[in-house]
Amino acid sequence: MVDSGSLLTTESVSIDLQNIAKKISNQERISDEEALMLFENGSLSFLGSLSNHIRERLHGDKTYFNRNFHIEPTNVCVFSCNFCSYSRLYAHRDEGWELSADDMLNMVKKYDGKPITEVHIVGGVHPKLNLEFFTDVLRRIKKHRPELHIKGFTAVELDYMFHKAKMSNMEGLKYLQEAGLDSLPGGGAEIFHPEIREKICGDKVSTEGWLQIHEAAHELGMHSNATILYGHIENYWHRVDHMRRLRDLQDKTRGFNTFIPLKFRNKNNDMSYVPESSIVEDMKMYAVARIYLDNFPHLKAYWPMLGRQNAQLSLSFGVNDIDGTIDDTTKIYSMAGAEEQNPSMTTAELVALIKQVRRKPIERDTLYHEIRDYTDIDIKEIEMNPILN
Ligand code: V47
Ligand code: SF4
Q1: Which residue has the higher pLDDT, 331 or 56?
Q2: Pocket of ligand 2 contains residue 79 by CB under 6 Å
Q3: For residue 300, which ligand has an atom nearest its CA?
Q4: Whose CB has fewer CB within 10 Å in the chain, the N or C terminal residue?
């Protein structure tokens, strides 16, 4: 057991914060009030030592990434979330895009012979792209490349599809699972507290609906991720409330793999008047998430949204995963003001990024099985080898 004294950064730390450090050192769970106290009173160095201590206890220096790509079937969406810079209402669908099943299969075929392990499918909620359409897409992808893991559809997309098909969550998920869906991404969670959810995305799946879909997926043996969209009009208590609902469900199902804080970006949306959070606030969010969510195995920084250098920094604030190569035309963030226009990193670039901050780069699959440890592989060797890069 680590001496809690080593987790206290200065003598001026209050008794309450010292008690939290003791809990972390004893591997005890912290309460909601303590999480709030960390947000309000924890210095960055204090939060950094606590969250890094947990990160290193769970994963040592290992930092995971995968080789994946994204497909965004459409940006036409029946909903109108105020923070969204990406969607076009159905009435303005001529300004949006809509991929056919053939287009999507061709995108998968572009990776033939390349060692990618995951495709992430996420997009707007188009009234015509229904359950039948997507089961056909899934079947065709699986037929073409059976071993490719398909992580697809937020609870928002699923809720809409299942209602339209008059199916329960369980029936709809089983149907998609049989067609080839392997796991669910974490999107659509935003902020669960009704006071904020109502204001920023009141017309899409409810908090209960989101949680029920993930619970049903876990019951079917599918894993999923969970996100939080932070740094806008919510306060710290709303963030704690959000994480409590996730921690409670995880106690029940153990089906979540990763928690992914998504920093609100304010370009080209109806919330552009809200300033973006500072990097200090970003690191606090990661640190408190790592400390509070003691039953989540992994904490991910999604680098296209946070930026490469900030993603590196987050590896000292509890983060042990920086998503993947992505290689795509992902527009969700570029349209909202993220620095990366067409986010894509080669394996060599990802490995270099991780090594620069003295962590161990480990390629994983979606379910965190380790594929390759790059610690002792030279960057030049990775660049030259098409199997590695
Ligand atoms: O739910 C939309 C977010 C999410 C903005 O599971 C915005 O591995 C910031 O969930 N500023 C979709 N964020 C993407 C998503 C995701 C991404 C990467 C990995 C995984 C995973 C999941 O994007 C939405 C919403 O929370 N988003 N607009 C914005 N302006
Ligand atoms: Fe539609 Fe998703 Fe954008 Fe909301 S965040 S408007 S559900 S695409």
Answers
A1: 56
A2: yes
A3: 1
A4: N
